[in-house]
Amino acid sequence: MQLQTQQPLPVEDYAANRVAGALIVVDPTTNRTSGALLVGHAASAAAQRAA
Q1: Domain residue ranges in the chain
Q2: Residue of 16, 18, 13 lying closest to 40 (CA atoms)
Q3: What is the rounded distance in angstroms from the CA atom of residue 5 to the CA atom of residue 10?
Q4: Mean pLDDT, residues 23-43
Q5: Residue 25: what are its φ and ψ, rounded to 5°?
Q6: How many CB atoms lie within 10 A of CB 39?
Q7: Would you tell me how many other CB atoms lie within 10 Å of the CB of residue 9?
């Protein structure tokens, strides 16, 4: 899955850093947890701009 955000997120691969490699997704309308993500490949900002 590819996720697009308005601003870069400071994430790392989950295998390298379990804290910076995990995210939760919150529904802004209900403030309920909608999902959880484990980062498998954190693309650099330079790579994102080149794509």
Answers
A1: 8-51
A2: 13
A3: 12
A4: 87
A5: -110, 125
A6: 19
A7: 11
Residue type, 9: L
pTM of the model: 0.59
pLDDT digits (tens, 9 = 90+) for 9-28: 888 888 999 998 898 988 88
φ/ψ of residue 36, rounded to 5: -135, 150
Distance CA 29, CA 17 (A): 30
Q: How far apart are CA 26 and CA 28, in angstroms?
A: 6
What is the residue type of 42?
Answer: A
Nearest CA to 12 out of 35, 37, 33, 41 is that of: 41
